[in-house]
Write a structure and sequence with these properties.
Elements: E1 5-6, H1 15-28, H2 36-49, E2 53-57, H3 60-70, E3 76-79, H4 86-93, E4 97-100, E5 123-129, H5 138-148, E6 151-155, E7 163-164, E8 167-168, E9 175-179, E10 192-196, H6 199-208, E11 213-215, E12 218-219, H7 230-240, H8 243-261, E13 267-269, H9 273-276, E14 283-287, H10 295-304, E15 307-308, H11 335-343, E16 344-347, H12 355-366
Parallel strand pairs: 1-15, 3-4, 3-5, 5-6, 6-9
Antiparallel strand pairs: 2-10, 7-8, 9-10, 11-12, 13-14, 14-16
The chain binds ligand T4K.
Length: about 375
Amino acid sequence: MTQPIYVAQPDLPPLEEFLPYLREIWGNKILTNGGPFHQQFEQALCDHLGVKHLSLCSNGTLGLVTALQALGVTGEVITTPYSFVASAHSLLWNRIEPVFVDIDPATLTLDPSKIEAAITPRTSAILAVHCYGYRCDVDAIRAIADKHGLKVIYDAAHAFGVRDAGGSVLRHGDLSVVSFHATKVFHTFEGGAIVCPNAETKRHVDHLKNFGFVDETTVVEAGINGKMSEVNAAFGLLQLQHIRASLARRRHVDAAYREALEGTPGIRLLKSADELEANHSYFPILVEENFSISRDALYEKLRSHGVFSRRYFYPLIANFPMYRHMASAQAENLPQANAAANKVLCLPIYSALSLADVTRIVNIVRGA
Ligand code: T4K
């Protein structure tokens, strides 16, 4: 009986490597609220990413909610419908109205050429997503934001380790939020971070993720509990020692998929990661109309062989009940996003995926 293959599998270092960290926590009894591992991990991440300021948080979703609050974003925010539902939910949690704009079919990220037409006097920001680790057109988005006086927030949940000519892509935007969920390239079981442009913004974010406390008796804003625990922070410190090797193995898996699938009639791949500075966090294929079976039939076929691919991101966010009544959510406004939601299948990719399993998966796809 062959083992099931899931879309993601978290990296876990040998348990013995984690035990000394746990002993330290058991010894000092500091479990959360910005303890020593939290501080060390923040600094180590800044060094690793080459950014000056970041604030750890308990997950990417609360990171997004807090980032929007920190920037004082209100009214309407232009965003992509092609993402995990947490992107748009972070707006609703702040009582902000999402205005959906279509995506660029080449990168599946927000199409800058569609943004200006969606700006109204109520627009205060753009929330864009580096989908699958493919960098948004950050220069075009910045130019539009500057012209109209808008803030830019990047949902960089998928973008840990992605670099461009200037360094980590997490430095872009007024704030950038990364997820360290178990299914991500770099994870701390649950977790995330808000990358900040300066110390003052980081301080503000630090207060907001701690209920709004600035000292023992002063609460300045209605903050939330978005803190990362010491166990998660310690695990993150350990994970950082393994991330380069893990990314290198993902690169091999990505390359093996590409080599085997390139040229398959009816299967389209996004441009290779190196051209777009991505991080092999997902392996999306687009099942076009001329493929032998439908995307959903291929999904079922893989399942019947114990391969659990995922239709990220189907349904489109704009089609969920809390969004679909909105004018910008209508299908005629979002042809590319709807097409992607109906075509994309994310094949399993993780550092421990063997090349034999890649071949097995490709054979199922090609034999369909
Ligand atoms: N923005 C974007 C663009 C995002 O993609 C996400 C999260 C967020 C914001 C929010 O960040 P967080 O608040 O989550 O930090 C998963 C994740 O829960 C979610 O983090 C992620 N995006 C989203 C794309 O995918 P599911 O429902 O697909 O997860 P699940 O449990 O079905 O896991 C997929 C497969 O991974 C499983 O079949 C088996 C494997 N797996 C999963 C877990 C959790 C494991 O082997 N071990 C595990 O512990 O949502």
